[in-house]
Specification:
The chain is of the alpha/beta class. Helices cover 42% and strands 14% of the residues. The longest helix has 16 residues, at 85-100.
Amino acid sequence: MSESTGEPSVRGRAVGVRDVAALAGVSRQTVSRVLNDHPDVAPETKARVLKAMHELGYRMNNAARALGTRRSRTLGVLASDALQYGPSRSIAAIENAARGAGYWVSTAFADAGDEKSVAAALEHLIAQGVEGIVVVAPHARTLRALDALRVGVPVLTLHSAGRGPRGLSVDQAAGARLAVAALADAGHRRIAHLAGPADWLEAESRAEGYAAELADRGFDPALVLMGDWTARSGYEATGAVLSAGVTAVFAANDQMALGLLGGLHEAGVAVPEEISVVGFDDVPDAAFYWPQLTTVRQDFEELARRAVASLIGEADAAASALAPIAPVLVPRRSVAPPPHA
């Protein structure tokens, strides 16, 4: 190993293709063919080359490989917000889906409100020789920044509520309708909505789904409050919820629902006997809230699988392949008929 770099070395320098070729007794071109999975290499020759690579500790340089083959087998992920549950789960799922397809992932983070930051992150990914880029774009301003740039490789957006170029998403409005329907079917008529931040595209779509389901049933929105995805904002909404006299609340994510559950408990209000609550996301802890939270589950693994398959050409990029993924209601114990129903 090289003392200065920690990389495998031969007489003080990094191991290269010529070292592998010399040990295996083949040409550098043959080693290159093995590296690039060329079919015209005899199995015994390939085995000899792979053995030499192992003995020398050779590591392939993806950037150099991309120069010669135009294939780096690397995808880029640009994230403008990775702190919230949905985007963070999607980034991890993309990594897993890419690895399963024989690809690696290079991730860059950008300030959604700064077009220069978004451009710099994209330039960084392109410099890595990525074959395609997934933009985790929950904010409208990220899409606006993206629209102004010429990327040069396939781009697909996630968490953009289906908006923007080749936007792939879970159907947020449909998920909100499932949540409201669960409450309405239990007999609730005065249903409040604890919404996510106004600059989040998915929050906007969930609010639209809430309003649409109520309208289809002939109900008026009882109360709409703005939260910021945190449990604290759910807790702080408790007073307004109680003052409005509603019997049910659809919270736009599980963390806000958790805060609301805490606030209602502190106020001596029983859930679901006096107020029912439904969340969104089905975070791993939702089944252990008290009471266990009825919520809407998003399939982040399927979202990532489709995104990776689309970028590497394993799926048709037609509208059917990029159609929104259907969410699923997960009934638990936080919903019951309203009091005096």
